[in-house]
C-alpha cells in the first residue's frame, strides 16, 4: 500500500474510531449500524470499570459513600470522558465538597491531595515541589474548608447525592 | 515467527499483580508470569518481580495502552517505555492487544474493538511494524473480547488475525477466555475459531474468568475460570499445546487456596505439571 493510501486509510479509521469512542465515553449518539443495546452494555461496563479504578485511587472517597459509591460515580461520570483516576476522583470529590455532599470521612483524603498536588481543574494535577511535608495536610484541609464555605448555604442539597 | 519466541513447554503461570505478589512468591515454582508494562518503572521495577527473574521465571511485560489498533502510529515514548521494561526484566517477549484505547483525544479506558476491514489490517500492520523496529524483542499480539462488532466488518476474526500475524511475523497471544466470550456473544462455536486460527503461531495463552450479565458474557478477570473455559483449554491442547498458559486475575482476589486450586485446574486441563506442589 502506498504512503498516501495508508494516510487516507488512517484518516478514515480515525473518524470512525473517534465517533465510537465518543459514543462510549462522551455521551455522543451510537454511530449508525452498531447494535445499540450491545454498545449500551459496553458503555455501562466502562463506567463500572472506571468506578473501580477511581475507588482504588481514592479509597476513602469510595468507602465514605458506601453502597451509593457506584451510583454516585456513574451519575457523575456518564458522558464525561475519563481523565485518569487521580483527576476523575479529584473532580468528583471537589464537586461533592462545594455542594456539601462530601462525607466527613473523605475530607482528609481530599485535603491531603490538595496539599500534594497543584490542580487548577484544567491541566493535569502536578506535584507541589515546594510544600514541606508538615504543612501538606493542614494546607489541604484549609483549602477544602474554604471550598466548602465558598458555596452559599442554598446550594446544599437534601436530595440523594449524585443521582440523576 | 511463532511459538518459538519462547522456550518449549514452559507450563502454567499466573499474572503478577502487587495484590497477589506474596501468594506468587510462596509458590514452589512459577515458570511463567506477566506484568502490566505500564505499571513498571524501568529504573525501579518491583523487587518481588526481580527476585522472580532471578529464580528463572519468564516475565513478560504486557501492555494495555499501546493502542496498536489505533488510527495513529503508536507514540514513541510508549514504545520506548515498553523496550526499557523488557530490558529491565530480561524479557524474551512483550505483548499488547489488537485493539484501540484512545482516539481523537478521548481515552476510552478499555480495549475497544476495531473494524475488521482490509483497510484496518493495513493500518495495524504498519503500526506493528513500526513498534517491532523499535523493540529489542518480539511483540505478541492478543485478540480481545468484544461486546459488540462493527457494522463495517469484512473479514472473519480468523481471517483478520491470520492476515495481521502473517504480514507482521508477530506471534499470537491467544486469550482462551476471549475466544469463549466472543463465541458466546456472537452465538458461534468456540472450537471453530480454534480450528481456523494459526495455532503454530501462539506464543502463550491467557486464561481468565468472567460472568454472564445483561444476556452477554463479560470477560471480567475478577471471577473464577468457568468450566467451559477449562474445557476449551482441553480442546486447544488437543490440537496444539502452547508453550505456556497463564491465569489473569485483576481484582476481587481470591483466597490463596482458591487461587492455587484454579492454577491446578489449568494444569489438569493442559496436562502441564502443577506449580502449587513441589516437583
TrEMBL record, chain A:
<dbReference type="InterPro" id="IPR058711">
    <property type="entry name" value="SCO6045-like_C"/>
</dbReference>
<feature type="domain" description="SCO6045-like C-terminal">
    <location>
        <begin position="14"/>
        <end position="97"/>
    </location>
</feature>
<protein>
    <recommendedName>
        <fullName>SCO6045-like C-terminal domain-containing protein</fullName>
    </recommendedName>
</protein>
<dbReference type="Pfam" id="PF26136">
    <property type="entry name" value="SCO6045_C"/>
</dbReference>
TrEMBL record, chain B:
<dbReference type="InterPro" id="IPR036237">
    <property type="entry name" value="Xyl_isomerase-like_sf"/>
</dbReference>
<dbReference type="Pfam" id="PF05114">
    <property type="entry name" value="MbnB_TglH_ChrH"/>
</dbReference>
<protein>
    <recommendedName>
        <fullName>DUF692 domain-containing protein</fullName>
    </recommendedName>
</protein>
<dbReference type="InterPro" id="IPR007801">
    <property type="entry name" value="MbnB/TglH/ChrH"/>
</dbReference>
